[in-house]
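Exercise 7.
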Amino acid sequence: RSAPRIPGRRFRLATAGCVSAETTSSRMPLLRLQAVVGPSLRLREVLLAELVAAWTGPVQRLTDPADLPTVLLDLDTPSLFGDSALVVVRADQALVRKHADALLAQIGRPVVAGVMVVVIPELDQRSALAKALGKAKAMHLADVPDAKAVVGWITGKIDAHPQGADDPRAIALALVEHVGADADGLLGAIEVLAIYSGEGPLTRAGAEAVLAGTAERPIWDLTGAFFEGKAKRAIDLLHAGGGAEPELVLATLIGDLRRQIACSETPDDDEAARWLGTKGNLFYARKRAKELGRPTLLRLFIGALQCQRQLRTTGSDTALALELFVLHAQRVIAPGRR
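Solution. The predicted structure, written as tokens, is:
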């Protein structure tokens, strides 16, 4: 007897067995193993969202699971207590390479007790796994716009934003001037700009403020330096160009710390997202949480809240208060660094 098919809508695919983040065409039956591949985190999530939306049962999300072979075995084991699941595995190339044979064995096999989507930044297209995925039309490529097309592409994203925009192309040009052609950086800049704009439309002036008034480094470079324990660099970026707004920087740090602490408390991305009240990707937050550890994250979080309380209640010099917090944080993150 043939294995029963799991209910669910059909997935879309593009030519040559690959679906694009911007393109859809014909439809295909449910496959036991599929892969979403591409350097852009956010565009990978666009493709993944389409696949998840086409699934009618529960979804399980894992990041770099050490027991991946056991997870694969579960695809052959129907549950007596629940419906078959779509298992989303976010992994790096090292994990996929380590278990390439086990993954390769899943391609072409019938769906029995669930399906899996592996989300990976890159995959050697010469490998047997990549060739088999392509032949089975199970490879979904998250295409990144090239440098010539990026302004038009990000203009379209801004123009379609639900808050509206006073001049989408001017905002796009400002973002590209500061961020370059990095797709994730540009999409992230739009998100930060939307928060900064409150309920109002996105504006060129708002974009300049969010990008800290400098054509060299946006605000997330500052937070990145903070989490690497590079206090001098973080403080230099705080005052670069027109200077970043300390309250905005601190709010961004607190948000990042909340995500990392949630990731340190559970290996389940869905559970962490429920705690946070968000649906965003936690791949990099989980990576940072592993590097810093839960005790360090909690100390930083408490310190950030104390700094925020100081700014709100004492009228202290906001830039000075943030500088002191950054210096104290370096002692926690990288105690040997001066």
